[in-house]
Every structure is written in structure tokens, then in C-alpha cells.
Design goal:
By secondary structure, this protein is of the alpha/beta class. It has one domain: Vaccinia Virus protein VP39 (Rossmann fold). The protein is built from eight helices and eight strands. Strands 1-4-3-2-5-6-8-7 form an eight-stranded mixed beta sheet, sandwiched between helices. Helix 6 links the parallel strand 5 and strand 6. It comes from Saccharospirillum salsuginis. It holds the Pfam family Methyltransf_4.
């Protein structure tokens, strides 16, 4: 008798695993910095107060890229603790290099799927801010299901934010900005800090302008920021 196999459902990822060459400095930073500043999905649920040695406002950033803007934010707000997630290894190495060079203590890093980290590693109602800056827009219509901002994700964000905490998104793709708006305006438990159906009037002061963003502006690209508060 042949046993029927249950088909394995492949998880839809909102990102592409990209390989990239690390510099010698980034490799050294990974070797020296990861044991202290790196976090693993397999370690399970964290206790932020023990992790940072204090109870402070906490910011969680999804996809920090090369790490420059996250590092700048952490340097400008030493009273806050930052947890960043990025799957691109050279970006992780670059951020660790910044951290070691500056002696920063208020940043920790995951090199994992951010959705899994949020779901499995962050306690509920533990974050003051969740940031999602310039995620992959998956601009082809057949790929829109890969966009990270979906109704289910909005409710995961809501669960992890403290009451009054904020979800800050930014994109330079107008279609994705409209998609974000549609999802978040319909999401239960949020209010738009700019007013219903409105984008932020400009780049919020706490979000550094990246080189990527500056290049886009020179090419005439717009940037849309959205900030939703958990109510």
C-alpha cells in the first residue's frame, strides 16, 4: 500500500536572500562583534531588559540594509535600545563594524526572517516602534503577495507594539505606498498619525536620509512615509 504524501507548502518570503562579498573589515567585525551583538532565531523568546541591561524604549527595524541609518538613529538616541534585522551578510558586517568602532551598546542584530523573529523572539507589547524603511516593493502585480505589508502582518505588528506604539513605513514606490495605506487604514487597532488616508507631510526628523534616498530624489523619485499608532 502506497502512503499518500502531504504536499509541503512553501512559505512566501517577502525578501530575496542575496549573496555579497564581504570586506576584510566586515569579516573581522562579524568575528569580533557577533558573539556579543548577534541574536539567533533558535534562541527563542528574548527578555529585552536582560539583553540590554535596562528597561528603555525599544525600536525594532526590519531590513536595515547597510546599517548606516540604523546606526545613526541609535547614536542620536542613546536613551533607546534598537534591534535590527537584515538577511544581507555584508550589511550586518558593516553595522557591526560601526558598533565596534563607536563602542555602541544599544543595538542588537538578527540575521533572520524578520516575520519569524517578530513572531517567535519578541514578547508581545514589548516594542515602542517598529520601522520598515524601503522594503522590496515587488512591483510586478503577480508578486504583490510577497509584499511584507499584508493584513496578517499588520496584526502581528499590533500584537508586538505597546499601547501607543508606532509602526513607521517608508517607500519610494508610489504603488507600494498606496498598498501600505490600504492595508493599514483597514487594519483594526491602528490610527494614522497624519490623519485618515494621509501620508506624512515630509520625512520625519528621526528618520535619516539614506544615500539610496538621495539618489532617488536626484532621479525625481518621491518618498512616502506612513506612521500608524496602536490604539
Amino acid at each position: 500500500m502506497t502512503q499518500e504524501r502531504t504536499p509541503i507548502q512553501r512559505k512566501i518570503r517577502s525578501f530575496v536572500m542575496r549573496t555579497g562579498r564581504m570586506t576584510e573589515g566586515q569579516k573581522l567585525a562579524m568575528d569580533n562583534g557577533w558573539p556579543k551583538f548577534g541574536l539567533e532565531l533558535g534562541d527563542g523568546r528574548i527578555e529585552p531588559e536582560k539583553l540590554f541591561g535596562r528597561d528603555a524604549p525599544r525600536v525594532f527595524e526590519i531590513g536595515f540594509g547597510n546599517g548606516d541609518s540604523l546606526f545613526e538613529m541609535a547614536q542620536q538616541a542613546p536613551e533607546k535600545d534598537f534591534i535590527g534585522v537584515e538577511v544581507h551578510t555584508p550589511g550586518v558586517g558593516r553595522l557591526l563594524h560601526h558598533i565596534l568602532e563607536a563602542g555602541a551598546e544599544n543595538i542588537r542584530i538578527y540575521k533572520e526572517d524578520a516575520v519569524e523573529v517578530l513572531s517567535d523572539c519578541l514578547p508581545d507589547a514589548s516594542l515602542d516602534t517598529i520601522q520598515l524603511f524601503f522594503p522590496d516593493p515587488w512591483h510586478k502585480k503577480r508578486h504583490h503577495k510577497r509584499r511584507i505589508v499584508q493584513p496578517e502582518f499588520a496584526q502581528l505588528v499590533r500584537r508586538k507594539l505597546k499601547s501607543g506604539g508606532t509602526f513607521h513605513m517608508a517607500t519610494d514606490w508610489e504603488n507600494y505606498a498606496e498598498h501600505m495605506m490600504d492595508v493599514m487604514e483597514a487594519a483594526e487597532g491602528f490610527e494614522n498619525t497624519a490623519g485618515q488616508g494621509q501620508f506624512q507631510p515630509g520625512r520625519p526628523a528621526h528618520r535619516p536620509e539614506t544615500k539610496f534616498e538621495q539618489r532617488g530624489k536626484r532621479l525625481g523619485h518621491g518618498v512616502w512615509d506612513l506612521i500608524y499608532r496602536k490604539i
